[in-house]
Design brief:
It is a single chain. 35% of the residues lie in helices and 21% in strands. By secondary structure, the chain is α/β, with parallel strands linked by helices. α7 (213-219) packs antiparallel against α10 (332-346), α9 (272-287) packs parallel to α15 and α10 runs parallel beside α14 (425-434). The mean pLDDT is 97. It is elongated and about 75 Å long. α3 links the parallel β5 (89-94) and β6 (133-140). Strands 7-8-10-9-13-17-14-15 form an eight-stranded mixed beta sheet, with helices on both faces. 55% of the residues are buried. It has helices at residues 35-40, 68-82, 103-115, 148-173, 181-195, 204-209, 213-219, 261-264, 272-287, 332-346, 360-366, 378-391, 402-405, 425-434, 472-483; strands spanning 2-6, 17-23, 50-53, 58-63, 89-94, 133-140, 198-202, 227-233, 241-252, 292-302, 314-316, 322-324, 351-356, 370-374, 394-397, 415-416, 445-449, 455-456, 466-467. The structure holds ligand BES and zinc ion (ZN) (2 copies). One zinc ion binds at residues 249, 252, 270, 331-332.
């Protein structure tokens, strides 16, 4: 999909169809020319409601306000409404929330790209009918003047971040026997070659040398050998250092603590954290942000077999801590333990974030659409929650407490991989991870449990059925904010 920016009014530019956003049901606004027709069609202008007037080549879509969050989903729903039609190009005006701030323009472009996403790799018939071209006029809803250069830069950033999100969605949606650890590493390597990122991969031999025995234990029963992927963006003018770590379980059967049939379906999405890290790295490289960013992915498949690791095993993590395994389905934290240790050994970071579809408990606690943000530092947690909200993602902080921390104690090892209570599972999993964060990084770390939003079996907002690319937009925004001050 390509974008073109022009100072000409919408009426004077080319486009198969015009998209008009109706703000706060205000059908009296000059942009709304078809009052009677819209009334006849039953259009009330509610958020995301669409009405396609084929005879006029106009599509109306409602938005509650010109705030980014409303414009983003309105744009996504507009483009979805045009899927399968004969229209190939759109023309649209600019909708801003204030005279100085172009966030809503970025949101509109993101909404178009994210809303147009479909995953059809496993369909024999692919849909050809899609919007290819979007012309954006700087004619502005509130009459604000928009600087064309600034607008053009904003559109470019929106394209990068939305394309990276779709890139992550593609990895996650790919089935487990088409995307196993070596394939994931290959995807990262190809992307690194295209964007100029540095790439390194650890295979079993190196993983053994690095003493990553907990990661190797989880991987042992699979015919697909594990990989730890390292991508790095190292600009000369870097202002600070960020490390990202992702859970890349290309399949989570639960292992010997086998998941029930209904819970196993969708577990190809257990690589969402790692896939998000790869997507974030792509965007950071393409934006060429003046921040040194490292991405580490622990790519492993959790399977059953004669060689499987077991409940009752005691494993030694890379940092020497011993772990009593009581449930092989709590495997993500084991893979992350070693990957976090390795990442901290390799890089002294100012910020350390990990992304993981870590617990069903997080989904129970905060629902399908929201990520849980945990860690020792309130500052770090707020940084993530704020960036998420600005980026169009939902995230909320969950607090650690010393009483829950006691529930992962083990009688026979340093720590147990599950808690002894059924409650607070997202937090106890994160507290387990905190055992593998060294002192220097303790206040610089936040863990983001994306188990809810990473993969949902229905469309929501600007997200399709399946993978959403959770984590990408929030983290790119956070990294941008480290070097730029926001306007609003
Ligand atoms: N990958 C799952 C968590 C998950 C559940 C992600 C639902 C997405 C949707 C993780 O490895 C897991 O199985 N966690 C267990 C932990 C339990 C054994 C302590 C869980 O959440 O049930
Ligand atoms: Zn599991
Ligand atoms: Zn898992």
């Amino acid at each position: 999909m390509n974008f073109e920016l022009t100072q000409l009014p919408v009426a004077d530019i080319q486009g198969d169809i015009e998209v008009i956003i109706v703000i706060d049901k205000n059908t009296d606004h000059a942009f709304v020319q078809d009052k009677k027709l819209l009334k006849k069609a039953g259009f009330e202008g509610g958020q995301d409601e669409t009405s396609l007037l084929v005879s006029k080549d106009r599509l109306y879509v409602g938005a509650d306000s010109t705030l980014s969050k409303d414009i983003r989903t309105a744009a996504a729903n507009a483009i979805k409404a045009l899927n399968g039609t004969e229209y190939r190009s759109i023309k649209v005006a600019t909708y801003l929330n204030s005279s100085k701030c172009t966030n809503s323009l970025r949101a509109m472009v993101e909404g178009f790209i994210l809303g147009a996403y479909t995953f059809e790799n496993y369909k024999t018939k692919k849909s050809k009918k899609k919007i290819k071209h979007i012309s954006i006029s700087l004619e502005e809803y509130n009459g604000y003047d928009v600087d064309i250069e600034k607008a053009s830069a904003v559109i470019h950033k929106a394209q990068i971040v939305a394309d990276a999100t779709n890139f992550t969605r593609n990895i996650v949606n790919t089935t487990p026997d088409d995307c196993y650890p070596d394939v994931m590493a290959g995807i990262a390597e190809t992307m690194a070659g295209e964007t100029g990122l540095k790439y390194n991969v650890l295979k079993p031999k190196e993983l053994r040398k690095e003493k990553m025995e907990t990661l190797l234990a989880v991987a042992r029963a699979s015919r697909h050998k594990p990989r730890v992927i390292h991508l790095a963006h190292k600009p000369k003018d870097a202002k600070c250092v960020v490390t990202l770590v992702g859970k890349g379980l290309t399949y989570d059967s639960g292992g010997l603590s086998l998941k029930p049939a209904d819970f196993m379906v969708t577990m190809k999405s257990d690589k969402s954290g790692g896939s998000a890290v790869i997507g974030i790295m792509k965007a950071v490289a393409e934006m060429n942000l003046p921040v040194e960013v490292h991405g580490f992915v622990g790519a492993v498949e959790n399977m059953i077999g004669g060689d499987a690791y077991k409940p009752d095993d005691v494993l030694v993590a890379k940092n020497g801590k011993t772990i009593e395994v009581r449930n092989t389905d709590a495997e993500g934290r084991l893979v992350l333990a070693d990957t976090l240790c390795y990442a901290q050994q390799e890089v002294q970071a100012d910020y350390l974030f990990d992304f993981a579809t870590l617990t069903g408990a997080c989904v129970v606690g905060v629902g399908n659409y929201t990520s849980g943000v945990m860690g020792n530092s309130d500052t770090m947690k707020s940084l993530v929650v704020d960036a998420a909200k600005r980026s169009g993602e939902l995230a909320t902080a969950l607090d650690f407490n010393p009483y829950l921390k006691k529930t992962i104690k083990s009688e026979i090892a340093d720590v147990c991989n599950i808690s002894n209570t059924r409650y607070g599972g997202a937090i106890t999993a994160a507290q387990f991870l905190s055992e593998f964060i060294d002192e220097e990084h303790a206040e610089k770390w936040a863990h983001i449990d994306i188990a809810g939003p990473a993969y949902v079996e229905h469309a929501w907002g600007e997200n399709p059925f399946g993978a959403s690319g959770a984590g990408v937009r929030m983290m790119v925004k956070l990294i941008e904010n480290l070097v730029e001050t926001e306007e609003d």
